[in-house]
Design a protein that fits this description.
The protein is α+β, with helices and mostly antiparallel strands and about 290 residues long. It is built from seven helices and 15 strands. It folds into two domains: about 10-125, Aminotransferase class 4, branched-chain amino acid transferase, N-terminal domain (D-amino Acid Aminotransferase, Chain A, domain 1), CATH 3.30.470; about 135-285, D-amino Acid Aminotransferase, Chain A, domain 2 (Alpha-Beta Barrel), CATH 3.20.10.10.
Length: about 290
């Protein structure tokens, strides 16, 4: 699929109807555009099956409730819509983006309870999120921004507004020749990358930050389960930045990232070791069952 994301062939599911890709639009006074009243999900389909599809749909509804964006569809209806639009576009291996937002209506200010909530689902072919980093290892910058406290933002929602610092940080990282950036949280613990959770290996055991101020990714949860099935000890804990020097391997997890090795974070280097390669291969096999 070529061209910009607004100029492509295909269909997008919008509020119960399949609409020509180029014909989809929202009004300039859409509440979400001004006040970030929007939540979304990113999913991948392999061989015609969306991995952990239902969990993503459930999380979309939960995210909406956290923002008082009550999505007027059930999990079953969202599930049916995702497969409908994939079929309509003739896709079996695809990225699936569901997004819900508060639209334009009677209100145009902070309050928007009288404005309708919309849902759209788009699908397209999408390769490796980090390119050749899947084999060579990604290079990460360390962001100057911090993941916020749960007292200041709905940190467990997949909310569009929470990605503002992700975009800034990723742009700054790319300007330095990096693939992504690593966040610390407001307490200065290691948190996550801009769109992926992070894992470290030391002495054959795995360490990963406790997801108490960021999204506990579905891929993250899947990988932890896989590691434990392999009898590998996993420590979910707070990790200090100075510990980075002691870790031997590192990888990222996420729907887009899948399992991507990390070769460098700032001045710290990591090997793309046997455990990293094994878990990446095992994940690849799992999603294609």
């Amino acid at each position: 699929m070529a061209g910009t994301y607004e100029d492509r062939d295909g269909l997008i599911w919008v509020d119960g109807k399949l609409v020509d890709w180029r014909a989809t639009s929202v009004h300039l006074l859409t509440h979400a555009m001004h006040y970030a009243s929007s939540v979304f999900e990113g999913e991948r389909a392999y061989n015609g099956k969306i991995f952990e599809s239902r969990r993503h749909s459930e999380r979309l509804l939960a995210s909406g409730k956290m923002l008082d964006v009550n999505i007027p569809y059930t999990v079953d209806e969202i599930e049916a819509a995702k497969y409908e639009v994939m079929t309509a576009n003739g896709l079996t291996d695809a990225y699936v983006r569901a997004i819900a937002w508060r639209g334009s209506g009677e209100d145009m200010g902070i309050s928007s309870s009288r404005n309708p909530v919309h849902l759209a689902i788009a699908t397209w072919e999408w390769g490796s999120y980090y390119g050749d980093a899947k084999t060579k290892g990604a290079k990460l910058d360390i962001s100057r921004w911090k993941r916020p406290s749960p007292e200041t933002a709905p940190v467990h929602a997949k909310a569009a507004g929470l990605y503002m610092i992700c975009t800034i940080s990723k742009h700054e990282a790319e300007a330095k020749g990096c693939s992504d950036a690593l966040f610390m949280d407001f307490r200065n613990y290691v948190a996550e990358a801009t769109g992926a959770n992070i894992f470290f290996v030391k002495d054959g055991e795995v360490h990963t930050p406790t997801p108490d101020v960021f999204l506990n990714g579905i891929t993250r949860q899947t990988v932890i389960g896989m590691l434990r099935d392999k009898q590998i000890k996993v420590h979910e804990r707070h990790i200090m930045p100075e510990e980075l020097e002691s870790f031997e391997q590192c990888w990222l997890t996420g729907t887009a990232a899948e399992v991507t090795p990390v070769g460098q974070i700032g001045t710290y280097n990591f090997e793309v070791g046997a455990l990293t390669r094994d878990i990446a291969q095992s994940y690849e096999e799992l999603v294609r069952v």
